[in-house]
Amino acid sequence: MESKTGSDLTVGVLALQGDVREHLAALTACGLRAAPVRRPAELDAIDAIVLPGGESTTMSRLLETFELLEPLRARIAAGMPAYGSCAGMILLAAEVLDGRPDQQQLGGLDVVVRRNAFGRQVDSFETDLVLDGIGGDPIRAVFIRAPWVEKTGADVEILATVPAVSGAGAAAGQVVAVRQGRVLATAFHPELTGDRRMHALFCDIVREAAGGDHG
Q1: Which of 30, 191, 199, 203 is flagged as catalytic?
Q2: 55 is catalytic
Q3: Is the pLDDT of residue 176 over 60?
């Protein structure tokens, strides 16, 4: 594949459910083209994908309905960069606890995720997180009926865990941001806070992948 420059790259946002406009705006602010993805032809035209928050079992069914499940799974397996927030993290996980039996996974992350883990404690929770690889002040993380990661494979980098702060409860110490190669995932919603650093990190991954992908 011919290398692309930043101005040639397009990041798709899966536009079946969730905070699509917010992700599109954040990616554009980071200097890459961004486009909604609802059809296989739109998937073919992008260089990377963002999977937004929403309801993971519904998104799984919609991926099948719109004939995106298999081609998206194949693109991620072939090395296309992907970033999932909240429900997107669940879809990227190799295994999901407390999911529906018919729920489909996209793969890309060698992790075990517990669906709606925060919802058993508090439906929504906010805290400041220090993330490996992101400088400056801590990121304000918004969790809405969010998952967390209960097990990580050897190749998975843990970027953040929930601090033991008031209100964290059983979430304290749980893994909420991970990276495996070109795949990034967070249990929280950076698109809701105006802090662009998670999206900037992903855009850097996209640029690096495009510059080094000649296969």
Answers
A1: 191
A2: no
A3: yes
DSSP lists the bridge partners of residue 183 as: 82, 180
Q: Which of 86, 150, 208, 214 is catalytic?
A: 86
User: What residue type is assigned to position 79 of the chain?
Assistant: G
Exposure string over 126-143, b if 16+ CB within 10 A, otherwise e = bbebebeebeeeebebbb
Active-site option among 189, 199, 203, 214: 189
The Cα 10–Cα 135 span in angstroms is 26
Model confidence over 51-94: pLDDT tens digits?
Answer: 998 888 889 999 999 999 999 999 999 999 999 999 999 999 99
Residue range 121-126: average pLDDT?
A: 74
Backbone torsions φ then ψ of 12, nearest 5 degrees: -90, 150
214 is catalytic: no
* SS3 readout for the chain: CCCCCHHHCEEEEECCCCCHHHHHHHHHHCCCEEEEECCHHHHHCCCEEEECCCCHHHHHHHHHHCCCHHHHHHHHHCCCCEEEECHHHHHHEEEEECCCCCCCCCCCEEEEEECCCHHHCCCEEEEEECCCCCCCCCEEEEEECCCEEEEECCCCEEEEECCCCCCCHHHCCCEEEEEECCEEEECCCHHHCCCCHHHHHHHHHHHHHHHHCCC
Q: Is 23 a catalytic residue?
A: no
**pLDDT (tens digit per residue) in 5-21:** 556 899 999 999 888 99
Query: pTM of the entire structure?
Result: 0.92
